[in-house]
Amino acid sequence: MPLIVVTSFKGGAGKTMLAANLAVGLRSVGWDVTAVDANPQDTLKLHFGFDAVDGRGVAGSGVDVVPFADDTSGQVSELIEAAARRMVIVDAPSLPSASARTFARAADVLVVATPTDAGSYAALSLADAQTFLADDGVVSKAIVVANQFDQVARLQRSVLALLHETFGDKLAATIERDPIVDEALASRRTVLLHDQTSKAARSLVALAIHVDRLCSPNGELN
Ligand SMILES: Nc1ncnc2c1ncn2[C@@H]1O[C@H](COP(=O)(O)OP(=O)(O)OP(=O)(O)O)[C@@H](O)[C@H]1O
Ligand SMILES: [Mg+2]
Description:
Strands 3-4-2-5-1-6-7-8 form an eight-stranded mixed beta sheet, sandwiched between helices. Strand 7 (142-149), helix 6 (154-167) and strand 8 form a beta-alpha-beta unit. The chain has helices at 15-28, 72-80, 98-106, 118-123, 126-135, 154-167, 179-186, 191-194, 199-215, and strands at 3-8, 32-37, 57-58, 64-66, 86-91, 109-115, 142-149, 171-176. By secondary structure, it is of the alpha/beta class. Helix 1 crosses helix 9 (199-215). It has one domain: Rossmann fold (3-Layer(aba) Sandwich), CATH 3.40.50.300. It binds adenosine-5'-triphosphate (ATP) and magnesium ion.
């Protein structure tokens, strides 16, 4: 059963948004999906219409959403014993926290959310990122997702070009900065269920298809 871990090298990169939308996108192509929140802030459930939930629930999306619990790592191990067509998606903390490293090592696919604005670029040393990925032996399963990309900003285009140059094929998707993302969250829905025709939704669907291919029987993981 594939374990998809979503992380980043800085906070606010879009991990929770990506985890929620990957869960819905992969559910729609036939996976049974459990989405687990590994952050004490416990915001993943907000994308699924929960307010305050003790325990877990299957939201209208068909995704089994597991809110944060102190023993999230233990829960994930239990979930991994489940059926073959079930996938677990973890909304992990940012690297290099110990918890994110543990999840990164256990992952079959490691999704690294990377914003393309100048501030994030300054905070993220690409060399450090590459060293971390190589050191932890996770480079082969890591994919990079450029998020909150603003096509109009020249500096952002340069950052995206640099990400392409640095990560090559590993740069699996670029998600535009799109007001629909916050609008969807305000409506307590994932982007994919809120407005499938939006730019962000189209890119998120393409990302879900990419991850599906990696995890399918003839995919690169198998
Ligand atoms: N492509 C996008 N376009 C517009 N807004 C976005 C996009 N991606 C994320 N956001 C917004 O950016 C904010 C941070 O996103 P999110 O909470 O998913 O990041 P995170 O990496 O999970 O943060 P944290 O480190 O706090 O857990 C949210 O308000 C989200 O709605
Ligand atoms: Mg988050």
